[in-house]
Specification:
single chain, alpha+beta, 4-stranded mixed sheet, 5 helices, 10% strand, flat
Length: 137
């Protein structure tokens, strides 16, 4: 039947096994072929479910957990100790006094030091050394 995910409509215990396996880190995850043999669900259905249904359900759960009060302020703390509240600069001391940890959102920005790479992601090739001129007598 088109439009209905066979995994979403399968018994709860089967779906729990499949979802748990698909949510594991890729280095620890079972191959889809092996999961297909274990659950008797096609590899294409497993792939489709992981790309569409599983993502939707995870986002829905995240939205419910992270529902933010519309009156909440959003504070952003930058590495140089500058703070903004709802996009406008504010003094750090004032922000610490006014921030309500039960209602407001605090985001801390950190920068990661990464080696410089060109756009292709590869390091630029090193030039060949210039040969020294030979003086033949």
């Amino acid at each position: 039947m088109k439009g209905i995910c066979s995994i979403c409509s399968s018994p709860a215990h089967i779906r729990e096994i499949i979802d748990a396996e698909l949510m594991r880190p890729s280095s620890q995850r079972m191959r889809l072929r092996d999961l297909e043999k274990l659950t008797h669900v096609s590899k294409s259905a497993l792939s489709r479910h992981s790309r569409k249904c599983l993502i939707r359900s995870l986002l829905s759960e995240h939205r419910q957990r992270m529902s933010v009060d519309p009156d909440a302020n959003i504070y952003v703390l930058y590495p140089n100790n500058q703070v903004t509240r709802d996009g406008l600069p504010i003094d750090l001391g004032t922000a610490l006094k006014e921030c309500d940890p039960d209602k407001d959102v605090l985001l801390c920005v950190e920068y990661e030091n990464l080696p410089f790479r060109n756009r292709t992601g590869a390091n630029p090739p090193k030039p060949d050394p210039i040969p020294e001129p030979r003086l033949d007598s």
